[in-house]
Design a protein that fits this description.
This protein is an all-alpha fold and about 280 residues long. The protein has 8 helices and no strands. Helix 1 (about 1-30) packs across helix 2 and helix 4 (about 95-115) packs parallel to helix 6 (about 140-165).
Length: about 280
Amino acid sequence: MAKHFRNAWLFTKNIYLSSEKAVIGQVLLRTDDTYEQAKLRLLFDYLFFYILLLFPILLLAMISQNEVNLVLIPCLAGVLLGCLYLLKRGVPAGIIGMITSFGTLLLSTSSSFFNHQDLSPRYAIAWAMSILLAYITVNLRTSLILCGLLCAYLSGVAYIRINDVSIYVSSGYSDSFQYLSNPITVILYMLFLIRALGQYYRNIISMEQQRAHEKQKQHLSLINQNLTKQFLLVKGFSRSGKSAFIKGEMELLEACFTEIEKQCGTAIGYLNEAQED
């Protein structure tokens, strides 16, 4: 059994790595900004794993014969696949993040509305993920707009419930089935949230470390060039001093010693700067 799980995991990992290379491989090479690279990776993870997440949710909708979700889930999958295509085409992360955030929020809200205004945790997690994605990949204003839309919807649900307004309910909606399916969908959403956002911050840390390492290498290379220059000057003055000593030119010899001392002091200064950095 463990071997089958391991093979399944390796198969999924290979699909993920191959898809990542095919979709954002070239885009990452053309992007020098490490923060932008991290956002592109986050968007790919969000889209890729959300599409995988939709398969078990679609299966649950088929089991319960939920007509609304059977229509909305393929629509959401289409939006996510379209965003993957835009990602591959090199469209800026902010635009893709906006489309993805609004698409996931609005479609999940529609599903909630037609499923007897369901406000269970699985919808709450989906809404939170959409708002967080907008905050990270777009800007604060966009995430606040999404928050406003969500608050307007929740206010509308409160009005409907308080006044017992009659609203169409999906024929496949069942309170008992929703209670039974909630643990499955919530754990799937939580795993998705941990994977997408957790990997995003790991990418940020890794890229910052890589950038610091590259900066350190460039600094050491510059120090090495400066020290090489100083040692060549010292070597030249040393030869001139030797020649002056043989010829008995004491003034020139003294000048060579002065320059050698000056260049050695400069070299020591470079070394001290390297230690401070």
